[in-house]
Specification:
heterodimer, A: about 190 residues, mainly alpha, about 0% strand, rod-shaped, B: mainly alpha, two-stranded antiparallel sheet, about 75% helix, about 5% strand, globular
Chain lengths: ~190, ~250
């Protein structure tokens, strides 16, 4: 039994008996100290290797990606700002443009109104002129007609007169009249 | 020391009876003897498990390193890279929340190493290894590193106050001193006890139950003892390490 307990306790028994330790569970001896030292070295080695191979590169990669995402976000924020600025600019421009359109339209209307008035005035003037001319022509025709009527009356009168005279006048009298008329005419013509 | 060991092992005598009758194995065996500083040491199961775990982690780290080196930060990362990044970020956040923004990042690598190492050690029982953390030499080593870090940072940030604070209420100074010394012991024994209990129970079950039951029943127990308990103890150990170290940053 003592042997068994010794074998359970490990190294001490093993040292006494000269055999290997078997089924050791717990022992406060030099083997424990050695195990502790070995473990400390192992953990230190593992710490160094994992830091070098795993943690630091992974963290670096994360930092790189973070920087990239940050840069992209900054860039997009700037782009957005620019776009907003452009948008407001264009909105202002559009507003201006509509005002301009309004102005152009009103100006056009004004011009059209003016033109319309002009045209109407011109047309009025033309109409007046035409009317005047027409009335003048009418006047002319009238006077012409009057002249013609006068001529007609004169010729008819002279015909009637000649008819009357032909019945009452004799040859001598007629010659005397002609002579008289010729004399009067001849004197006037020469004197003039 | 021998008496102490004997007393500690005495409670296991009943188990010993079982181990003699059947093929129950859950202890550490020695494989190779060597002499150093006039003492005789042995290369044990723990060291072999330790080596296997370290090589596994190293291969993982190398593959991860390859993936990271090949990765283009302008492109969408693949699932493996995502996993690595998630892991590293989780560890970074854990240390930052527990140790503060100012000092946390300095310890992220150590806490990460500790977490991955202890987690792999605890669940190595799933792969047929004897968990290295079921050996007190390993957990004591981890706790001693924590102990060293606590007091190194204590002296670094609090200077001489780190010592004088122990005697602040002079009546409580023995308790304070015992408290400081108890920290690594309690941390190491907590991890050791939890993992060892799982290992012992699994050893007993594999050694004692009929083979037909072993086809399905240990799966449930592995899930509990190796995965669940292992992960919890890993978390607890890392958490305590972070909390104890970050206590030293306070003025």
């Amino acid at each position: 039994m003592v042997n068994f307990i010794s074998s359970m306790t490990g190294t001490l028994a093993a040292l006494e008996e000269g055999g290997m330790m078997e089924n050791r569970i717990f022992g406060l001896d030099s083997q424990l100290l050695m195990d502790t030292v070995i473990l400390a070295l192992a953990v230190f080695a593992l710490f160094a290797l994992l830091s070098y191979l795993l943690f630091n590169p992974a963290r670096e990669l994360l930092a790189k990606r973070q920087a990239k995402i940050q840069a992209e976000m900054d860039f997009s924020a700037k782009e957005k700002e620019d776009a907003m600025q452009f948008k407001s600019e264009y909105e202002a421009k559009l507003k201006n443009a509509s005002a301009e359109v309004e102005e152009i339209l009103s100006e056009g209307k004004k011009k059209a109104q003016k033109r319309e008035n002009e045209i109407i005035a011109e047309a009025d003037a033309e109409a007046t002129r035409i009317r005047e001319r027409a009335s003048r022509e009418i006047e002319l025709e009238k006077s012409k007609l009057k002249d013609e009527v006068k001529q007609e009356m004169i010729s008819i009168a002279s015909v009637m007169a000649s008819k009357i005279i032909a019945g009452n006048i004799d040859e001598t009298k007629q010659a005397a009249l002609v002579d008289e008329a010729l004399n009067e005419m001849g004197d006037d013509t020469w004197q003039n | 020391m021998k008496i102490g060991s004997t007393l500690l092992s005495g409670g296991l005598a009943n188990l010993g009876v079982l181990t003699q009758d059947s093929e129950v194995t859950f202890g550490v065996n020695g494989y190779l003897k060597y002499h150093l500083f006039g003492h005789e040491f042995e290369l044990t199961t723990t060291h072999i498990s330790l080596l296997i775990i370290m090589v596994t982690l190293l291969i993982f780290a190398l593959v991860a390193n390859r993936a990271i080196k090949k990765a283009d930060p302008d492109k969408v990362p693949g699932p493996f890279l995502n996993m690595i990044e998630y892991m590293v970020e989780t560890i970074d956040n854990l240390t930052k929340t527990n140790m503060g923004e100012k000092h946390g990042y300095k310890f992220a690598n150590y806490i990460g190493t500790l977490f991955i190492f202890v987690l792999f050690s605890n669940i190595s029982g799933l792969f047929g290894l004897r968990p290295p953390t079921a050996d007190y030499g390993v957990t004591l080593g981890l706790a001693m590193i924590t102990f060293f870090l606590i007091h190194y940072n204590g002296f670094k940030y609090q200077k001489s106050k780190h010592v004088t604070n122990l005697f602040k209420p002079i009546l409580l100074s023995p308790i304070n001193i015992i408290g400081e010394i108890a920290t690594p012991i309690s941390m190491s024994l907590r991890l050791f006890g939890n993992v060892l209990s799982g290992t012992v129970m699994m050893g007993l079950i594999y050694g004692l139950l009929p083979k037909i039951i072993l086809l399905f029943w240990p799966g449930v127990l592995h899930a509990y003892f190796d995965v669940f308990s292992g992960a919890i103890q890993t978390y607890v150990f890392c958490m305590l390490t972070m909390v104890f170290i970050s206590q030293q940053f306070e003025e």
